[in-house]
Target: Dihydrolipoamide dehydrogenase
Amino acid sequence: MDFDVVVIGAGGGGYPGAFRLAKSGYNVLMVDPKGVLGGNCLYSGCVPSKTVRELAHTIYRIKNVLGQEVKVDFKEIQRQKDRVQEIRFKQHERELSEHGGVTFMKGIARIRDPKNVIVDVDGKEVEVRAKYVLIASGSEPVKPKFPGSEYCITSDDLFEYKSKVSDLPQDMVIVGGGYIAIEVASVFSKLGVKTHLLVRGDRVLKGFPEQMVKTLLSSLKLDIMYNSPLFEVKKVGSEYEVIFGSGGVKRSLRTNLVMLATGRKAVIPKGSEGLTNEKGYIKTDEAMRTSLQNVFAAGDVNGLAPYFHAAVRMSLAAAYNIMANGEPIDYVDVRSVPVTLYSIPSASYVGNVNPSDAIEVTYNMEDEVMSQMYNEMDGVLKLFFERGSLRLLGGWMVGVHSQYLINEIGQAVAHGLTARQLAEFADQHPSTNEIVSYAARKVL
Model:
């Protein structure tokens, strides 16, 4: 079989670029082991987890604002998650049918050499020749081995399509201190679950802005046990005994569910191991080029920004550069990609949030109208402007609708907007977005 481009992976790093190439007349083969488009984000990641998050937030708001208790039916929450996934599976099927230049194949791809790919389809090998290869194979949870690790789940198990986790636990232990651990702990605590976080080190959310993390943790009030490595998990009847270290001694607690949130790793197709860096990701430049001229990599597999929306941007950049005969004409600015921690409240940041010499302005969420409506007035917005030019360098926010507001801030960072330009724009009222112009006015 001969194709112009083989795309390995049908998630955010794969199908946007495949569709764009097909639109320009390229003959594209897209290969994915799941047999559906959307990747981990749709099958077990951001879409299902945020569906659960939104329902949990709604339940919390009814109690927080109206003082009314809502009986939580977690089976129905999971069914709604499945329904959303099914809607999007069908949506992607329609999109695939609309792009006649894309052939989709359910299988596992390996790279024999830069212009030859072998696809395993139910045990049968199909040889494919291609001018270009786009690797977008994504990532998967890291699940360390230790006594009792077989009793533990990951976030993929919790949120996957038709998840086996249908009953809400009374108590759960989450191992890890990254964004998945914090998100799940926050969401499930709002559903009435007693959550405990075991963190090996002395801090959580490494790599996130320190002041943002400090502000967020003061709002979340989670049970976080620092310097508490996990040693063993034992099954005791219908419960689990979790044995961990704390203060130099071993401790234990009983729980209904143990979830490992111990990081994710790139899924590296066989034959491409030589393209990886010391961290195990496929190394690329800002144009998504690997060390091989006709091989590109986009999305989680390159480790530049492990978020679906970043993967989409990278996928399109790779497509444009392939259309330019492999020469770079499109570059991805990773620093202008917004990042959101979907806890309750959420926390978001974009751009340079640690400038050494900048004008810093603050807006407290207790003065924001939507926060007042929801009775969720914890949090703050911080913006950082360059001295002299007043160009926006970056910003972070904790509080209501941060996941939406950060997009406006990201646009301003990406396009070099100034405090005056932000201050002069009339954001809709009432909306959280208007605090951007309120904050910008403090500079003028």
Q: What stands out?
A: The longest helix spans residues 74-97. The domain at 143-262 is CATH 3.50.50.60 (FAD/NAD(P)-binding domain).
